[in-house]
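note to self — DONT lose this again. spent like an hour looking for the file last time. sequence + predicted structure for the chain T wanted, 311 res
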Amino acid sequence: MSFRRFVYYCAVCGGCAAYAGWVLGRVFSFESVLVLSSVRGLLLGLTVAAALGAVDAWWNLAALDPRRIAARAAASGAAGAAGGLLGAALGQALYDSLHLEALALFGWVCTGLLVGAAAGAFDVAARLVRREPVGGSLRKPFHAAVGGAAGGLLGGIIFRLLQALCYRFVIEDTDTFWSPSAWGFVALGLCIGLGVGLAQVMLKEAWLRVEEGFRSGRELILSKDVVTVGRAEICDVGLFGDSGVEPLHARLLRRGDGYVIEDVGTAEGTLVNEQRVTEPMALRDGDAVRLGKCVLRFGERRTKPPERSEP
């Protein structure tokens, strides 16, 4: 999946999931506005974070295993539910106390921030469970949280505008299947998804593009300290169907603010710009990495290219 498609699917799935959350929220009815808002925020966070977690898994997993995608979506949804509950409850409580419209928007910003962080936190949680160093995996939830907060702000503004316009111009009862709150939820979920996707793409530091081989055109952000490349399903970058690629063929290792690549002792080797890698080699923006018949293009955003010693 390309970066453009990733952002598109984040936005569309975020909007659809938010509408599903609004539909689920119609089942509940409470006298307390605070409780009702909290439940709706919980359902919004649950559905949107689960959808974004599924999109992220679909994009990043080398093998599209439905069980692994479902596991990531469930974990993201659970964290998103907690974030949505907290954000909505905080915003409603502040609004009830001070009666300032901006405080209601603050609640949606908090909701977007926490939902975005939840959608990007699966890898961090998995590393903590395995007692592995978290390292660079924190960048992903941080970027997603920034995008989610921006999306929450924009979506909250649109939510209020749609609500005001509907009550201003629609004569019939607005408490219908497509009431202002439904449209507002869709706008909020769409903006949070768009913000999460855009932030990850725009704030990326290093990435790979598959130019030749399995799933050519796929683009992958490098947010981990160690990225594995090979034919095995457990590899971060899976290159299936090529006998010249070993189950574990190469590793990309973060060194300072850049990456180096090392071959793991394969028969056919790993080539960078047609030069065989015999020891860890620093990668520069635009380098072509060949493994078997597959070609990966390395990209990075940095102000000063690393020095590379030529043999």
